[in-house]
Amino acid sequence: MARNIKEYGPWAIITGASSGIGAGFARRLVHEGLHVVLVGRRRPALNELATELQAHGAQTRVVVQDLAEPGAAQAVLDATEDLDVGVLVSNAGAGRMGGFLQNDAAALRSMLALNVIAQMELSHGFTTRLRRSGRHGGLLLVSSTAALQPVALGANYSAAKAYILNLGESLNAELRPLGIDVTVLVPGPTNTPGLNARDDIDMGSLPVPAMSVDAVVGEGLDALRRHRPRRVAGLVNRWMARLTPRALGGKIFGGMMGRIAPPRLRASAPLALPAGDVPQIRAVG
């Protein structure tokens, strides 16, 4: 039986809330009657969203935090310790695409800190609080269709998102008897700044139609309400995931990436610049 999202309430934390899917989750959860904690790097964007949501009667709290930094997850948990939080949408994530050897190891490590370590630590801290209080709650982790197969020229990102997928599906079975619902949302290309405003590979040029933020958010929350372990967003993406063998999917997506990657990020390009010359990975939002 599907839950009403307010059964988890009254507060929700959304990471990567400055824009894109994170901002979409904040708007939808406020529409459904929850108050929201907006977590992201860009204070002006967070404050602007908070003002918009307050006009609809919601309480908000802004937490400015780069989740790629050490101790970031604990900082978010500390900043919300006084709130009755029933939902965590762990959405913040980003990844520099291109050849494995064309990206500096420090940048790859930073990407893992954001996409893997921060999500694991937030998930652990949040569900620990729920267990100690003996209350129901919902954890929604945002992965990617890149997790479903190997992706040449996106190896580190694909591996990081596969961790999130396996973590969430495992926790769905482990924590459900405790009244804690866990779902992994697996979006494909989505019409967000993170898709279209990039300085590496133009992901907006993939021959796959981008979904709207509202559609992706709606599917994610519906799956959480229904206690589903995963939801691949979009009918076309679901059919591709079901019908395409993993090895074939890897060849298809690797071929796409090879065609749209700029020459400087292909595997045959010069090796990565020394550490310090490569831009740090920062969370979208």
Summary?
The protein is 43% helix and 13% strand.
- Give the integer mean of the pLDDT values: 91
Gross morphology: globular
Q: Quick one: biggest sheet?
A: 7 strands, parallel
- Write down how many β-strands occur, each being a DSSP E stretch of 2 or more residues: 7
CATH topology: Rossmann fold
CATH architecture annotation: 3-Layer(aba) Sandwich
CATH hierarchy class name? Alpha Beta
Total of DSSP H or I helical runs spanning 4+ residues: 9
Reading side by side through the largest sheet, how are the strands ordered? 3-2-1-4-5-6-7
Task: Report the uncertain regions.
Answer: none
Amount of beta strand? 5-15%
CATH superfamily descriptor: NAD(P)-binding Rossmann-like Domain
Q: Compute the CA-based radius of gyration.
A: 18 Å
Helical coverage, percent range: 40-55%
Order of helices and strands: EHEHEHEHEHEHHEHH
Structural class: alpha/beta
What is the end-to-end distance? 33 Å
Domains, number:
1
